[in-house]
Amino acid sequence: MHVLRQVLLQASRSTAIRSVIETAPGSRQVVRRFVPGTDPQDAVGACADLVGQGLTTSLDHLGEDTTDVEHARRVRDAYVTVLGLLSDAGLTQGGRVEVSVKLSAVGQALGADGEKIALENAREICAAAAAAGTTVTLDMEDHTTTDSTLAVLRELRQDHPSVGAVLQAYLFRTEADCRDLAVAGSRVRLCKGAYKEPPSVAFQAAAEVDLSYVRCLKVLMAGSGYPMVATHDPRMVAIAGALAVTNRRTPGDHEYQMLYGIRPEEQRRLASEGEIVRVYVPYGQEWYGYLMRRLAERPANVAFFLRSLVSRG
Ligand code: FDA
To answer: 10-residue block means of pLDDT along the chain (313 residues)?
Structure first.
């Protein structure tokens, strides 16, 4: 299982495998389980549907391989446009629909000026989100970007204090990062982590990642920030619920988050109990890397994916 995960994460960076999967006859329909569409209208429709079910959402414009400044600007503009559409549809007020942004998509990897370019683009997205009555969460990518992403977060929060961060429990550093960020007004999404990381920086065994997740949850739940519990793991959800009780938290001061298409019944169950549940909704043409990370998380999804490709092909 560990080997399969490593292979799939490796494949997520391979252009040859990418072109085979993108052009396979059955791909599109399978991808729809995890990515509701490629156009902004698809994204707005999916958010409206989820909000109608009593859920909230975070919309992610897919795209990680931004190689020039123009491309980074187009991604920024895509966010500004979709925020306008979401606002027109009445979905953004009170943060019911927010957006998630990968800094690499808005320029972070563009050489020495990358962080500055990403910060400027992210600022404009934050301003558009604020005008629409909602906010932004910065996704976290591989460990080489963590310091830069947290530095951009600090800058953005000066004007937009509600901008959220993501911390990944598989990194050794994360418990300390949780302590730094468990402060009033700070929104922190805690996830296990989805990238291939070396043993020098990250726990490798699933059990160790889970233990780290619980330690980090304890810090966030006991702190004065706004914890966002991003996991599909029933044990982590139960532990978060218990920690919320011991820390006298109530449904409005923390939330649960899950990915589009994964455990939708559990999303609705938690919401029906009065919890805030946010569904992460990715959309766009660049679904390949996202899909491969989802397949790496669960071998059953690989079998499902391959069966669909064969039966449709
Ligand atoms: P784990 O992978 O241990 O799964 C526990 C159980 O959940 C499984 O046994 C299964 O029942 C179910 N499950 C999990 N994944 C599934 C799948 N793909 N298909 C079907 N069932 C599945 N990562 C990152 O590095 N940076 C980021 O910014 C984000 N952002 C983010 C936002 C949100 C809202 C979520 C929910 C997750 C992320 N992630 C992320 C991804 C995260 O790091 C992690 O890879 C996945 O959430 C899977 O980990 P779980 O906590 O679900 O546990």
So the answer is: 74 74 73 90 97 98 86 97 98 96 96 97 98 98 97 98 98 98 98 96 98 98 98 98 97 96 96 97 89 80 70 46
For residue 298, how far is its CA from the centre of ligand 1 (angstroms)?
A: 9
Catalytic residue among 60, 76, 139, 293: 139
Tell which atom from ligand 1 comes closest to the C-alpha of 294. Answer: 18
- AA letter at 16: A
257-280 in b/e form (b: 16+ CB < 10 A) is: bbbbbbbeeebeebbeeebbbbbb
Residue 262 Cβ < 6 Å to ligand 1: yes
So what's the pLDDT on residue 300? 76
What is the 194 CA–ligand 1 centroid distance (Å)?
7
Confirm whether 189 is a catalytic residue: yes
Which pair of tokens denotes residue 4?
Answer: 């399969």
Q: How far is 131 from 125, CA to CA, in rounded Å? A: 10
Can you tell me which residue has the tokens 């996830």?
191
DSSP code of residue 171: B
Q: What is the fold of 35-286?
A: TIM Barrel (3.20.20)
Specify the amino acid at residue 48. Answer: A
For residue 248, count other CB atoms closer than 10 A to its CB: 7
Residue 232 Cβ < 6 Å to ligand 1: yes
Residue ranges matching CATH 3.20.20.220 in the chain: 35-286
- What's the pLDDT score for residue 45? 97
Q: Which atom of ligand 1 is nearest to the CA of 236?
A: 51
Mutate which of 233, 235, 281, 293 for ligand 1 pocket (most atoms within 8 A of beta carbon): 233
